[in-house]
Amino acid sequence: xxxxxLNYILVIILFMSSVAILYQxxxxxxxxxxxxxxxxxxxxxxxxxxxxxxxxxxxxxxVVLYNRVPKTASTSFVGVxxxxxxxxxxxxxxxxxxxxxxxxxxxxxxxxxxxxxxWDSMKPALFHGHFAYLDFSKFGISNPLYINLIRxxxxxxxxxxxxxxxxxxxRPYLIRRKHGNTMxxxxxxxxxxxxxDPNNMWLQIxxxxxxxxxxxxxxxxxxxxEAKRNLINNYFLVGVTEELDDFISVLEQSLPRLFKGAxxxxxxxxxxxxxxxxxxxxxxxxxxxxIKGSMIWQMENELYEFALEHFHFIKKFGFKNKFQNIxxxxxxxxx
Length: 335
Prior knowledge:
It is a single chain. This protein has helices at about 1-45, 50-60, 75-90, 105-120, 155-165, 185-190, 205-210, 220-235, 245-255, 255-260, 260-265, 285-290, 295-320; strands spanning about 65, 90-95, 125-130, 145-150, 235-240. By secondary structure, it is of the alpha/beta class. It has one domain (about 55-320): P-loop containing nucleotide triphosphate hydrolases (Rossmann fold, 3-Layer(aba) Sandwich). It has a five-stranded parallel β-sheet, with helices on both faces. The longest helix is centred in the first third of the chain and has 45 residues, at about 1-45. It is globular, with a radius of gyration of 25 Å. The chain starts with a helix and ends in a 16-residue tail after the last helix.
């Protein structure tokens, strides 16, 4: 009988301890939110007017999603963001998907969209990772501000070919999966080996196309058109690797909440060459001719040229005319 009472008392003690721990956790979360609210309120009260205060609150909720294409200088750009995040008071989060997969299952698509949208304690935030475009709106969730960089397809392809053989100066100690294979890209093309098959260039199109099966079928014309449509309609900004400094400048002008000071930091630091492949041979004219004769290169290059033209349009009519005003006139009915 005594043992039963002791067990009963022990259960009660464990239960009360659990309740106390949960209470402390909830209290800590509430205190964290309260501190953030007080911080926002202080900024709100010191803002010159309600308009500026409202803009401040909106900026603190901004979420930027960078679904970075491999070998496009993405590490250099993300390095700038990591350097600025403490100074500009925002979070940078790397999205690491199991087995380096570029796509997510339907269940994980929904989970990811909910996490990015509802993780308020991380906002404002820049999420980045090597994954294909995901349309949050199909889950009834507002899309974040997508950004990306795109590179000349043959340059990106050759860079990756040598990268998996020789690695880079960013993590020189890491042994890549083709380590020890010293075959040149020219020789690979001459022998028509799988590593230099033009089908392997099919990557930037599916990254902008998304999670449809057709996006990942090399040479699919629908995928190219979908990639173009997403680039224009669903991306806040897409730059090109060859003009990375301008890409950073446009982001600083358009999203100063996150990227204030980014241009100066980039130009005055070593971030412009943060990750370089250790060894990379220039291909012969014959090799270039063979690759450019493939339909895959032609389609990937079409997307690149499309992105380049659009980026130049943004720089010409948006970035350089940064002192534009928007006025609303002739409002009827009066009063």
